[in-house]
Each structure stands twice: as structure tokens, then as C-alpha cells.
Amino acid sequence: TTLVGEILKNEGRKVYVAGNIGVPLCDIAGEVSPDSIIAAELSSFQLEGIDSFKPHISVLLNISEDHMDHHSSLENYLEAKKKIYKNQGKGDFLIINWDDPVLSRIPMEAVKPEVIYFSTRENLESGIYLQGEHIVIKEKGSLITICPVNEVALPGKHNLENMLAASAAAWAAGVDTRVIARTLRTFKGVPHRLELVGSLKGITFINDSKGTNINSTIKALEAFPQKVILIAGGKDKGSSFDELAPYIKDKVKFLVLLGETREKIAMSLEKIGFDNYVYAGSMKESLEIAYQSAREGDLVLLSPACASWDMYNNYEERGNEFKGLVKDLGGELNEEKQG
Length: 339
Description:
By secondary structure, this protein is of the alpha/beta class. It has twelve helices and 14 strands. Helix 1 crosses helix 7.
């Protein structure tokens, strides 16, 4: 959402970025004008109750179990998400992740907006995808190159998917591909999503507090070539952690679990024979344990796979505490060096 806003701003559009990312839509209602564009992030809770809401361009990134305590099933969650294009019509656009096994099976016969797919895995007949080492758009048989993948500012598969989705949305909005490319080369990301906090004694600390569901944490783990020391756990939203467990076994060398879901995650891990984890009672204790177990070259990743509401008001507060504790740890280390 933020990246879409940046692309539009870089072309000189009047843009507001709001919704489920910190600035409520109602807060900007009195400021927007007919020539304004709103890049809005909407939750399944907001979408399931819509009546006349009608975006010009809508985006569906991925579907996995989330908020099962409310929606009860993946099918109900999907139906809530699908309402984003309920009132769209001819002349509107729907951006869909072709690589997502749930979204790619949505029947298109009754979908009224023009559908634009994006993919990091396949060459599409039409849409935005990777051809070799380049991000390209194919439309009506014509191929347009945006930029080489190795020139974009954000690393990782998760970020690449987001960049393709944002590029597709910007393309649908009529943004020049040169502006899209320039933004992809300079955009450094958003706080709390695979955010580099710093390095201490050769140990890297990454804040991914915005990883509030299983799919987000899977993508975070896939973003790094080495095994990581992971801090996970939080509010129980009713999801099973069986899907996450194999990724932890493959990508995590040591795990610190905290929050309401710590025993539930541990049970999923025990099923597949992973027992290299401990429980912690606070973020401070979690970070201390993670740091003590780390060695030079290691990476400590906070990616909870859960909401924050059991211990915090929001994921920003959780991420900010993690960052503050890392900085405090760095201050102590600097004092040791000076001594």
C-alpha cells in the first residue's frame, strides 16, 4: 500500500495512504478532493461489512488462514476478502497474485473488472511477471520492461511479490513505467516489515512485527538464505500452526516463543520433531535469550506469525519495543567496548 502511494506521488499525483496501516480513512475524509487518489489497505473485517464501497483498482495479494477466531474457516475469510471487488465494474481493475493457489482458482466468469495477474514464478500470457532477471509487463502481446530485479532496493521474495503487485496497480492507474522503475530502485520499505534494526558484534537484528499471520512469517523466513534465530508468538487468532512448522524446521536454528500461542506453536513443532525452542515471558526476555544464543554471522528475526493484542495495543508498539531493546543492547555493548 505504501509503495503504491510512493509510486503515485513520484508521478506528481495527490495521494493519501490510509486504512488498516495506521491512518484511519475517516481521518482524511475531510481533506480529499475529486483529483485525489487514496491508496487504502483494508482488513477482512472492514470488507465483510461493505455496502457501496467501490475501488477503481483493487488488489488481492494472498490468502491463508488468518482471523480464524472470527471467520471460522478459510472459505469464510476468502469470501470476506473477495468483497473488495463486489461493486467494481467495467473500466475498473482487479490485481491478483497468480502464484497463490487459492486466488488463482477464483472463477473469473462473474468478475466484472479487468483482471491483471502478477507472478514471480511463471511467464504469463498477460500481466506482470519476471522474464529472466527483469520485471516485465505483457499487454495485448506487447512486452514492456520495467527494470532489472537486481536494481530494486528491497530484497526477498516477499518484497518482490509486493513490488509486482504495486507495479501492476500503478500501471492500471496509468503511471509511466519509468516512474515505476525509479520508485522500485529507491523505495526502502516500511517500518516493521523485514526492517533492519542494526547489527551488534556481527549479529543482525530484523524487525518483522507486521508479520501477524502464518503466511507473512513464512515469507519472512524465505527472505534469508541462512537459518535464523526466530522470535515468534502472540495473540491466538484460531489458526493452526501446522503449515508453519516445516518452514521453522528448515529455516530456524533456534526459536524463542512468547505470548498466548507459544504452547500451540510448540505442539505443531513437536509433531515434526523440532524441539530446539524455549519459552519467554516478555519481549525483553525473548531478545536476551536470542542474543545469548547467537554467534557472529547469525540473524535474529522477530516475525511473530500472530497478532499483538495479547501483550500490546498493536504490532507497531510490539515492533518499537523490539527496536528499543536492540538499541539498548547496543548501548550496553558500546559501554563494554569503551571500558
